[in-house]
Amino acid sequence: MMLISFIPSFILSHVSYGLPDISLLGIVAATLLSMSLLWCVIGPKSLPTVDARTAPDRYSQLIKNARKIHRIFTLKTYAGPITILPPEYIDEVRNDRRLSLAAWFAQEFCVHYAGFELFRPVTVGDDILQDSVKQGLSNTWSTLTPRMAGDAGIQLEQAWGTKSEWQDVPLNASIDGIVQYILASVLFDSDLNSREDWLSRVTACSEAAAIALTQLRKWPPLLRPLLHWLLPSCWRLRNQVHDVRRIIDTVIAARRSRDTEKKYDDAIDWLERSARGRPYDAAMGPMVMFFGGTDTLTDMLTQVLSDLCGRPELVEELRQEVMDVTLGQNGWRTQDLHRLRLMDSVLKESQRLKPFEIVLLRRMARETVRLSDGTRIPKGSSIGFSADLMRDASNYANPNQFHAHRFLQLRDTPGYTHKSLLATPSVSHIGFGCGLQSCPGRFFAAGLMKILLTHIVMKYDIRASVDEVKLVTDGFRVKVDPEATLSVRRRLGVTVP
After folding, report:
1. Pairing of the two strands 359-365 and 477-480
2. 439 in a labelled binding site
3. Phi, psi of 100 (to 5 degrees)
4. Structure pTM?
5. How far is CA 300 from the centre of its chain?
6. DSSP-based three-state secondary structure for 163
7. Nearest Cα to Cα of residue 286 among 445, 143, 132, 100
8. Block mean pLDDT (10 aa), the chain, length 497
9. What distance in Å separates the CA atoms of residue 76 and residue 8, rounded to the nearest whole number?
10. What domains, with CATH codes, occur in the chain?
11. Please, what is the angle between helix 232-257 and helix 284-308, to 10°?
12. What is the DSSP string of 201-268?
């Protein structure tokens, strides 16, 4: 243990932001080899094991095949082993604090390594971050709605143009840019957003974090304490985090030193109010909100646009619903967004068929847990549920088909009025999680999705540039092809306030 704790400082003394010397590489290579061999023999032994370490693009199929044979099994990946539980356990584990989202997040997002403290606010502080998201966004929603609607309209036209002829636009990049702009406007006050380079700095930090995580996760957990000092992507992340932290800390210090009664209403302020004097990372809290929000919202919107391609009749139905609600004509009101019931159903159905990941409700056991049937979850082990449970025929008719009206019709079924809403998790729809540790920003996400989709369907005709928009798989992530394009054209004479 003394040797392992010594390694980072030893490496730092020999490595700058250039290539490490050859002698160091020899030492590191020998250490990595021995640690790798050790890692290959660890992991849960009491459950059937599916080795997926050499097939990161086949996790989904391997899980499907294993579920046909085993009720419970361990999927062994290079990120570490995870126990896949059957759906009947969701009710039992969803509110069990011993099975922690924060603990899983800490391991999955490598928060204990230099540079990755960007993600640490999710894991510490007695739910400070979660409370700040819930309270901050809910308390400001009425004022945020018209502001986000205005930003959405401007950013969409800048990204897709105003030509009435068909043209191809990069689907992921254009939506990502729009979402990033809106989130930055919501999470940071004018003292940051007024900086000409602020959005580019925040975006660069977010992108550096995604790349560094992807690179580091390719290596077994036992090697990461060493490798995060060596990988160039991690060096770049540390530089970006240092840069952003310096700017945010300067703004926070200036706010606290001013003799003024000016009230702020952004993520920095929400975190301070939620902390109530407890220690927290004031600079990285808003950044992790930005990172998580951008990734989730872009994924949802690109997928629903893919689902709408080739369904012009559904697009017309959505347009008619917007006109019936007279959205925007009386200002953008929260109650009007709630009346977009078909749009809510379309978004929830899209998420049901293609959620953010193929394994959801990820948790880590803070202590050894025995479930009601005697199943043992050892301390420190990770669990999750296959997203295929949202295609279960016992819950949904024709579960593999996209049915835009599915959840709209379920609203009239006793017991489903509330569960059919996009922002309401349930044991049969876990796109936003389930239980006490559900996504705290899901109501905000649902509202913003409706604002963006309203602008898109009212202002543009859309169709796929090719026969269909393909999905790509990388580990547990399944997402719209980052290189996919969308054909769009501006509808003449149509405006949305």
Report:
1. unpaired
2. yes
3. -105, 130
4. 0.88
5. 10
6. coil
7. 132
8. 38 36 51 52 67 88 93 90 95 94 91 92 75 86 90 96 96 97 94 91 95 90 93 97 95 82 85 88 92 95 96 97 80 88 98 96 96 92 96 95 97 90 96 92 95 96 87 91 95 84
9. 27
10. 59-490 (1.10.630.10)
11. 120
12. HHHHHHHHHHHHHHHHHTS-GGGHHHHTTT-HHHHHHHHHHHHHHHHHHHHHHHHHH--------SHH
Structure tokens at 354: 């293609």
CB 348 within 8 A of CB 446: no
Kind and range of the H or E run holding 151: helix 128-160
Token digits of residue 395: 């819950």
Answer whether 151's CB lies under 8 Å from 273's CB: no
Whose structure tokens read 């559900």?
438
Helix (H, G, I), strand (E, B) or coil at 135: helix
> Is the distance from CB of 288 to CB of 122 less than 8 angstroms?
yes
User: How far is residue 82's CA from residue 370's CA, in Å, rounded to a whole number?
Assistant: 17
Q: Could you give the angle at the alpha carbon of 338 between the alpha carbons of 334 and 342, nearest 5°?
A: 145
In Å, what is the CA distance from 20 to each residue of 10, 11, 14, 17, 352? 12, 9, 7, 9, 47
Contacts of 88 (CB under 8 A, 6+ apart): none
The answer to whether the beta carbons of residues 244 and 287 sit under 8 Å apart is yes
